[in-house]
Amino acid sequence: MLASALIQRLRLPGGRPFHLLITSLAVSSCGDWLYNVALLALVYERTGSATWVSLTTAARVLPMVALGPIGGVMADRYDRRRLMITADVARAALMVLLGIVAAAGLPILLAPALAAAASAAGVVYPSCVAASTARFVPEEELQRANALRSGIGQAAVVIGPALGALVMVVAGASVAILLNALTFIVSALVVGTIRAGGRFAPPQRTGDVEMPSVLAEIRTGARALCGAPTAIRLVAADVLCSAVYGMLTVTLVLIGRKVGAGSGGYGLLLGGFGIGGVIGASITARLDAPSRWRRTLAIALALVGVALGALGMVPTLAAAIALALLGGGGMIVGEVLAETALPGMLDDEVLARAYGLVYPISIAGIVAGSLIGGPLVSLLGLTGAMALGGAAVLSVAALLLSRPLDVAAPVPAPVPVPVPSVA
Q1: Is residue 7 part of a domain?
Q2: Same domain, residue pair 192 and 245
Q3: Whole-number Å distance between alpha carbons of 10 and 336
Q4: Which residues pair with 346 in a beta bridge?
Q5: What share of the chain in percent tops pLDDT 90?
Q6: Is 176 helix (H, G, I), strand (E, B) or coil?
Q7: Quick one: 138 and 250 in the same domain?
Q8: Residue 206: what pLDDT?
Q9: End position of a domain, from candidates 200, 221, 247
Q10: How does pLDDT run across 48-67, given as a tens digit for each residue?
């Protein structure tokens, strides 16, 4: 009995289609982080300007925020398998062009422009993956599946930059960028091996009605989210942790220097948060009863708040890495629970549109945190800024968890009103 239970726990959730889907996700996620290192190094090497680096980062992120809702609408209108393959092929082509820019010394303005185009081409991917996961995996395994997806994302934070740094040293930025193009090609081939069929098909629309406008589709997804207040609170917890991550992208550089780790401290501490995220996702996968969600999230956010505040006072690198592991483990929990709650509380017909709103909001949280981090440090100093950030996390967590997390039945999608024909 014990051996059987252990095997069941070790077995990956879902079947072959989901396993291929997460393989595709793992390959392209590692490539994304590898390419991010190369892109920013290329821009700084060519310009010597931190402003150019900031603008390049913004060029990568802003299309995800601005176009994410449209990606959700597309995932609810068209075959998701074709959308993912098309997105991978388009991004591979753009990476090849960017590699040529790096190798041939073409104007550096092309680098952020191509990076922005690649981000725009990929906006359909997160919604397609989230909605497809809910169809590929049985409901009782959905939390494990989402924890696995989140764990892959955290592992990519650790593995991708390390590979990027290695390739940069051995072969240069152009080769690193072209390797990212290869990861997109591999991703497209893996998705292409999944059998086409109804599980990739867009939801069936009821009634003989005209296709609503994109804006109307986005409003429908927003109304569905508003009808699931527990999902909104879980999403808010995820956005809170995203803001913490954004703040850390600024403050970890200073913390690394404070503990005597120099310029390499940032990578070590960021890796600590990534490894903590993998561990946290693994633990959350085992706590799959919704009755445990409130307590689990309370503990997780407490870890985030305490770790964030303590990082400003920590005296040694070892202590800072330990706090990073704890904080990273807590930060991933909100993401896993939110992505598990959405398919359980929303109708399949609106799931991709709802996720198309949730994902860019989470990314916007990272941007907001990074923008807040610098001014807070200037105003309060590193210790004060981190203490205030930790206190804010604990305060918002108390507000979000002041009531039980009720897991309700899926919210029915609004029925479109027939549009009368004009004679």
Answers
A1: no
A2: no
A3: 18
A4: 411
A5: 29
A6: helix
A7: no
A8: 60
A9: 200
A10: 876 787 788 888 888 998 89
